[in-house]
Amino acid sequence: METIEIKEEKAIKVLISPSKNGFNCVIDIKNKNNLNSAEEELCTTIARGLVQQATSRPSQTFKMGLKAIKKDKKSISDKLGKEQNNVIDFYKYISRPR
C-alpha cells in the first residue's frame, strides 16, 4: 500500500460541517504563507473546485462520496482476501504428525 504524506503546515484545508440547511463548506488558507506560489495556486484552486462542486451540486457530490466509499470498501476487502491467502495456521502446522 502506498504511503501518502501530508504536511499539515503546508496544507490548504476544506472544512465541511453540518448546518440547519444541510452543510457549510469553507476553505482554510491560514497555512498559505508556508507554500510557494505554485503550491498555493495548485492547492487553493483544487480546494475552490471542491467547494464549488459540493455547493453547486450537493446531491451529485454526495452520491460521488457514496461511490468512493463503496469502492474503498471493495478495495480493502480484495486486499484482505489476498492477505488471508497468505495466512499460515500454525496450530495445524504444530499438530500435524511428524
What do you see in this structure?
- The chain is α+β, with helices and mostly antiparallel strands.
- It is built from three helices and two strands; from the N terminus they run E-E-H-H-H.
- Strands 1-2 form a two-stranded antiparallel ribbon.
- It starts with 12 loop residues before the first strand and ends with a helix.
- The model has no long low-confidence stretch (mean pLDDT 86).
Relevant terms:
two-stranded antiparallel ribbon, alpha+beta, 14% strand, 98 residues, 3 helices
Give a quick summary of the entry.
The protein is of the alpha+beta class and 98 residues long.
- How many strand elements? 2
User: What's the end-to-end separation, in Å?
Assistant: 38 Å
Please tell me how large the radius of gyration is: 22 Å
Strand % is: 5-15%
Class by alpha and beta content: alpha+beta
Q: Can you list the strand order of the major beta sheet? A: 1-2
What does the main sheet amount to? 2 strands, antiparallel
Mean pLDDT: 86
Order of helices and strands: EEHHH
The total count of helices amounts to 3
Give the overall silhouette: elongated
Q: Name the poorly predicted regions.
A: none
